[in-house]
Design a protein that fits this description.
Number of domains: 1
Strand content: 25-35%
CATH topology: BirA Bifunctional Protein, domain 2
Structural class: alpha+beta
Oligomer: single chain
Radius of gyration: 17 Å
Number of strands: 8
Helix content: 10-25%
Order of helices and strands: HEEHEHEHEEEE
Number of helices: 4
CATH superfamily: Bira Bifunctional Protein, Domain 2
Length: 184
């Protein structure tokens, strides 16, 4: 259970332990962090409980990895480093990678387009349901940019991304916490 946070009944996101930093009410001695979190799907916002057993990638128990910056780097570096890790270090085929950005996040779209060598037709815009992250009805939130891998034999189509297609799955979600939703 989250310590000293009456807005959360249980830890539902890797950023919970840094919530005070994102809200500007706390600080850390460091400007970067990485974590691993064991997760279990439960009912509620963004928990996908109804998806368990309906496809091959929504599991009841999974591990989430996170990396965080507290004013040290932001969208440009996060996007470029994710692309570098996937394509230069892990050597994933670039033609199998697709990215999605929040529909109004021009900054993230421009970074993908100008700072990486992704096929420009593989950069797609989606709305709040797919590309805006929030931990609940209140609290830190913001646009996100997901990276999807195409496992299909002949190559997927843009409409296969974020569609529930079992062979086109999200492998990375870059969340850009830049807002504090006080209430809907």
């Amino acid at each position: 259970m989250p310590f000293n946070d009456p807005t959360l009944l249980f830890t539902n996101a890797g950023m919970n332990q840094f919530k005070d930093v994102f809200l500007g009410t706390g600080s850390r001695e460091y400007s970067r962090a990485a974590d691993t979190q064991k997760c279990i799907r439960a009912g509620g916002k963004h928990n996908d409980l109804e998806e368990v057993g309906m496809d091959g990638y929504h599991h009841t128990f999974f591990e989430m990895l996170g990396n965080w910056s507290f004013g040290d780097y932001y969208k440009k570096e996060a996007i470029k480093w994710a692309w570098e890790l996937l394509t230069d270090v892990w050597k994933l085929p670039k033609n199998k990678l697709w990215v999605s950005v929040f529909e109004t996040d021009e900054e993230a779209f421009d970074i993908w387009e100008k700072e990486t060598d992704i096929d420009k037709s593989h950069i797609l815009r989606f709305g709040e349901k797919d590309n805006f992250w929030e931990m609940g009805d209140t609290g830190p939130c913001g646009p996100c940019s997901e990276i999807h891998f195409d496992f299909t034999e002949k190559g997927c189509k843009p409409e296969d991304v974020n569609s529930g297609h079992e062979e086109v799955i999200e492998i990375w979600n870059r969340v850009f916490i830049q807002y504090n939703r006080k209430r809907r």
